[in-house]
């Protein structure tokens, strides 16, 4: 059972290596692998607060703040005050991010194809169901307030 | 299928949060979550080279070098030249690391228990088999030379 987390962490790190390598080949060398994940989260639902993004991704708020600031500096993100609560900043992709998005998605899709080669749809469905249960167990154990 | 990597990365980050929180409570606040993984790898097979550890963990050699140096500075690791090739340094745990090991193992075990709650042994076995296949697919795609 200890091997489950070991393998899962390895696959996660392998994806980071793949994203770095392909990103460099495809003109995205200024993006880190973690920023690929953040770009997908921001573009999936534009206009969310950093807190919402942090909660979805299970990242500390301070880490998301730093990561979003880096994307702002690099011209990928704009932060716009929430009309209903001016203290809250909402995160939107810029044109530069939207132009990078198809490549980020393509790299992510290619990685999924690589690791799932030779595995049937039924097996993948079972696998994803169990992953979903594990993620839920983990969210319950950690609580909502991930600091 | 895209959700597989998303969930897998989330569970990996959730484990990091758990290790940080429990580590702080149990006197290991000077260790980062990634160092927990490195400690397990070093203590499992003492006397390996950094290259061997990098290959097992799927981490860049330069990242392992930095991570091991940090553990040396903190007194957790000693590097001893290989008798058969003096240029190669082999990594051994110090007494300080061996004293921390039971706590690192306990935190890792508790996390595995949390995420696998309510999942049968048969399901876990299927799950681990598929993870193993994915890791193998990934290793083949990335090649041995992870730089």
Main sheet record of chain A:
3 strands, antiparallel
Largest interface: A-B, 50 and 50 residues
Class from helix and strand fractions of chain A: mainly alpha
Strand content of chain A: 5-15%
Q: Report the average pLDDT across residues of chain A.
A: 93
CA gyration radius of chain A, whole angstroms: 17 Å
Helix count of chain A equals: 6
Oligomer: homodimer
Order of helices and strands of chain A: HHEHHEEHH
What is the β-strand count of chain A? 3
Helix percentage of chain A: 55-70%
Strand order of the largest sheet of chain A: 1-3-2
Gap between N and C termini of chain A, in Å?
28 Å
| Overall morphology of chain A | globular
- Note poorly predicted spans of chain A: none
Report on this structure.
- 2 copies of one chain form a homodimer.
- Helix content of chain A is 68%, strand content 12%.
- Chain A has 147 residues and is mainly alpha-helical.
- In chain A, strands 1-3-2 form a 3-stranded antiparallel β-sheet.
- In chain A, a hairpin with a 2-residue loop joins strand 2 (77-82) and strand 3.
- In chain A, helix 1 crosses helix 5, helix 2 (33-44) crosses helix 5 (95-115) and helix 3 packs across helix 4 (61-73).
- The interface between A and B is large, with 50 and 50 residues.
Search tags:
homodimer; 147 residues; mainly alpha; 68% helix
In short:
The structure is a homodimer of 147-residue chains. By secondary structure, chain A is mainly alpha-helical. Chain A has helices spanning 2-25, 33-44, 50-57, 61-73, 95-115, 121-142, and strands at residues 48-49, 77-82, 85-93.
């Amino acid at each position: 059972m200890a091997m489950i987390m070991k393998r899962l962490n390895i696959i996660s790190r392998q994806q980071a290596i793949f994203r770095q390598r392909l990103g460099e080949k495809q003109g995205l060398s200024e993006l880190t692998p973690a920023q690929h994940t953040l770009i997908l989260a921001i573009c999936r639902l534009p206009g969310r607060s950093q807190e919402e993004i942090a909660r979805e991704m299970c990242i500390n708020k301070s880490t998301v703040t730093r990561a979003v600031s880096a994307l702002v500096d690099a011209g990928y993100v704009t932060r716009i005050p929430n009309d209903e609560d001016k203290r809250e900043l909402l995160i939107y992709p810029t044109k530069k991010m939207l132009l990078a998005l198809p490549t980020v998605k393509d790299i992510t899709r290619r990685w999924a194809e690589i690791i799932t080669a030779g595995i049937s749809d039924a097996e993948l469905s079972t696998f994803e169901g169990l992953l979903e249960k594990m993620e839920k167990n983990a969210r319950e154990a950690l609580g909502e307030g991930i600091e």
